[in-house]
Amino acid sequence: MQRARFHPSLPQPLMSASFSLIRSPFTLITSLRFPYNNNNNNNNNNNNNLAPLLLSPSSPSFSRLRCSSSPFFLRSSRYSSFSSPPRFASFRAAAMGKPEAAVDADAAMDAVQKRLMFEDECILVDEQDNVVGHESKYYCHLMEKIESENLLHRAFSVFLFNSKHELLLQQRSATKVTFPLVWTNTCCSHPLYRESELIEENYLGVRNAAQRKLLDELGIPSEDLPIEQFIPLGRMLYKAPSDGKWGEHELDYLLFTIRDVKLLPNPDEVADVKYVNRDQLKELLRKADAGEDGVKLSPWFRLVVDNFLMNWWDHVEKGTLREAADMKTIYKLK
């Protein structure tokens, strides 16, 4: 165990907020340094105005500050947090590269989604799917950043069919930052910038990520969906705004699997689930097009439906899915 260390010049509320951190493959213990004002400091050496401080990993504003010498990531969900006093608000905003008003505006975001927005590091790629870096989920979905810096990140979309060849759909939760309450395919998310999800061979990194998120969103344990059961069929590149602030710009891996599974949806991620056959899906599409019953579909799901799904569904029914795979082409769709 290692105790958090607080500089004696910090305000008492911070000094009293003592907690323990455990180092594991999912945590990072590091001492961050930042300038502070100490009116009682008589040392004129500016370098001595850098105080060592172990910050709370649950602070979303600092979870993006990474230690370059460590491969580990901050996982804030494991720890209790403390609130930064007003005197640190400006520094917190500056550290994020955001004006304080933007930080305040994000305060209304659902706590779980906010944590994931700052904690998760997406994989940045070019249009040929070469890894070029990484960035927080927050900035990868901020339309201002997408447009100004052309941020493109790797993603995946899982299409799970049962033994009756029905497709499992989910309705995204109301608290999702992008495309809340829309109907979409079984699971849609991102491989993260971590060793296990960067593996290129046999698309293992993306398949590892899909297995992780199916447990997180739908409660499907990994033993019920082994890695080899995910069949990559294709890749597509698309851009889609969600509202005036958020959107998607993804290079999306399309993964198909046929399994009978038990579901335990996570309400932070999923509002509803249902299996549909072809006719039921067509009726859902009709309602979405007509604006009936408030039905909306995610843009990436609609692109797959319009360009690939019915042909691939034929292969699902014939048991010839692997014959449909084309992982050499990256389809640019609008």
TrEMBL record:
One of its GO terms (cellular component) is cytosol. It holds the Pfam family NUDIX. Residues 151-303 form the Nudix hydrolase domain. InterPro entries: IsopentenylPP_isomerase_typ1, NUDIX_hydrolase-like_dom_sf, NUDIX_hydrolase_dom. GO terms for biological process: chlorophyll biosynthetic process; dimethylallyl diphosphate biosynthetic process; isopentenyl diphosphate biosynthetic process. GO terms for molecular function: isopentenyl-diphosphate delta-isomerase activity. Belongs to the IPP isomerase type 1 family. This is isopentenyl-diphosphate Delta-isomerase. The lineage of its organism: Eukaryota, Viridiplantae, Streptophyta, Embryophyta, Tracheophyta. The gene is LOC109722818.
